[in-house]
Amino acid sequence: DTAVSQTPKYLVTQMGNDKSIKCEQNLGHDTMYWYKQDSKKFLKIMFSYNNKELIINETVPNRFSPKSPDKAHLNLHINSLELGDSAVYFCASSQGLSGTQYFGPGTRLLVL
Amino acid sequence: GENVEQHPSTLSVQEGDSAVIKCTYSDSASNYFPWYKQELGKRPQLIIDIRSNVGEKKDQRIAVSLNKTAKHFSLHITETQPEDSAVYFCAAHKGDYKLSFGAGTTVTVRA
User: Fold this and answer.
1) How far from chain centre, in Å, is Cα A74?
2) Which of A62, B34, B49, B95 is the most exposed place for a label (fewest CB within 10 A)?
């Protein structure tokens, strides 16, 4: 019974396309995150939502637009995909400010 | 913002030996320090964490220590086993929703 889930697991697409990644958590947490992990394995926060409100936006290009329809879901839409967007995108969730963050399985995005 | 540095970037140990990974942080307001293990192709998973009111914490073969004055913390894995091979990340958090990660340490346990 999956705690944090993401779809799709793999995404291969052409430059210039628009794509979305979805995340859901069934832990009852109030805070959700998107991270990007590049080819060197570095984990960088992109966005954080608390109770459906944007808390952190870490200088991410405005081609990336997160959306949280409710506390259990956080989606990421990416417009005009570029080669440099190729990475693994992880969703995570936590309860409150300093709660432990639990990660989803990741979405491996490859832009050709 | 918070800056977390992690060393070494790679670590190769003989099975049964110990592995030590060290991290430093810049913001004295940071008060929560988790460690994540990421196996190849998998998600990061929390293995142990420590809060600023504690100096050391141990869970079986894994221990973490924190020196608030020096702003550094470290992970110790004793009696390493092949399944300990993974990338390990330290992180620092100051209660503002933002977890700052180190660059990761690739640990290889040689049989």
Assistant:
1) 7
2) A62
| Closest chain B residue to the Cα of A105, Cα to Cα | B43
Can you tell me the distance from the alpha carbon of A45 to that of A59, in angstroms, rounded to the nearest whole number? 10
pLDDT at A1 exceeding the cut of 60: no
Q: Is B74 left (phi over 0), alpha (psi -120 to 50) or beta?
A: beta
- Chain B neighbours among A 32-51 (CB < 8 Å)? 33, 40-45, 48, 50
The structure tokens listed for B68 are 């608030």
E runs forming strands in chain A: 4-7, 10-13, 19-25, 31-37, 43-50, 53-57, 64-70, 73-78, 87-94, 102-103, 107-111
Confidence (pLDDT) at B95: 74
